[in-house]
């Protein structure tokens, strides 16, 4: 076998992100020294991004099964049965490092990649969501990064004709040197037309479709598995460049071919490009694969097999076809002006073999590359418990504090963001961005999917177990708040370096909390992604296990929103009201403190309360519903008033301090409205009548009032003023 390379030195091994003991493991696995191409293949496949080597043993603790789960983790995306022969296919994934280096292309290609994960399985993408974390609002790079990321998300989604229907944006100093861009896609398919990635059929042709391969994105997976330093700008060439118009063509061509019986297996070329797609397809099928590199469509002269295999050029797919289906498939892809090439075949060798210019330039056993990649049980220490707040400050002026919170970075209106997204294309978006959950109709039916993305990183940092529970419960609550039954989640686990025991402890704790919540809420994890080493020069991000939840409502016309509806409606608080101020936004924004434990999550109460609220929505009892989250009860009331452009008069609970009543962030609570005189029966949680809808101000008896127009100004001003500077 030709190696076409000089000897592999320790410096070359280090440049490929491999540790000395990992290189020794490679030598044992293949019984010889690899050539540079083979080393590159091991490098990307053993990266954290592709192998999950630090997280696999803990991810296995998450519940992944339910009667409605068709496909759990391990495929391109998760699949759930939503009845009537319909399936929802969805996944959430990170594109953090590329987006920090090149925000527009990093975010755009993150959207493109997650869409391919979904339509690879036979689904037409119908909705995009995102979860974005930026540094401090006044940091020198925040404005540029925010502008670029939002433009990249909007540009890619808008051009492909898939609506971006919601998401979340947060700001915190821990993200100053490492932003998070997590993209989620949801698609619809028929349960009997779902496609998988396991290669099969010895001798079956392996075909390459989509865009040509270039030199962009080489070693992108390896770069995404390392922390940043002062040289991060030099990594710009590892960021891929996307073409949404090409992606749209690829979607249509793939779905057209999927309507035939030509496809045996299909895999998106995502992280690690042609390497990961070929290795994963062959490994899952228990077969071998041989590729002729001379046949790979390239857009640059003189590309080597190393560059072809490690490129992460976008809008590409790998397929195994049935024998004789090549001409039919080629005709479809040529019609859509896409490249099509037969580049190899399925073999019975159990090996990855690459031929170039008549020479065998790579000959590796597949198991060590994929299934037998390193799996580490890294040392970890639990996060110390936070002491309760011993000196809780008071509010000098509750209504002034409310205005401060509504204009703060984490609670100000996101209108500037979502107005750059086409959230109505396709004409099936029935609840727009800005509410508890987006609602997208299953075309031609009464059914709708509810979608929400949530996590509260400050809770996860203070207590990873409670934070993990809360992240799951928050999405469950947001889906419930529109009337949907929560069915399953996808996760995006963003953490700093797992080589630090305290960081690994955060990961383990969040997984434990998430697993507890998923089990009790009957809300399994069906897909996900892990992004580690999110830190710069030793400064890590807050632990941020982003959760994307999907639920179903049988009749979307029964759904409710958070907006106050009618003058005279009675306002009720559902759920225990204790006034927990530890780790609250009020404590941070008004008093500059990030202290105390986060609010505990009572999962049994969460489920009982949510099930009751959902039943009341579907019965038509409730006019408006909003979960109580960041900022507490008074912020929730203000959001409902501003959404409905209707004021309210409410009474505070005299048993609590004004600040605790207004801004405590107790979990498992909802604010609901009912017509005057309506009865609420059978609630398993405490019910407290707060007041009535009406007027042009939000009035709290004994505390004060603010006109809605006064509250709207700070809420709407923050992001437009930032971007105008």
Question: What does the model show?
Answer:
The protein is α+β, with helices and mostly antiparallel strands. It has 24 helices and 28 strands. The strands form 5 sheets. The protein has a 7-stranded mixed β-sheet. It has a 7-stranded mixed β-sheet with strand order 23-25-22-26-24-27-28, sandwiched between helices. The chain is globular and about 85 Å long. The N terminus is likely disordered.
Tell me the helix content. Answer: 25-40%
Strand order of the largest sheet: 8-10-7-11-9-12-13
CATH class division of one domain: Alpha Beta
Tally of DSSP helical segments = 24
Based on helices, strands and strand pairing, what is the structural class? alpha+beta
Shape-level CATH architecture of one domain: Alpha-Beta Complex
Oligomer: single chain
Major sheet characteristics:
7 strands, mixed
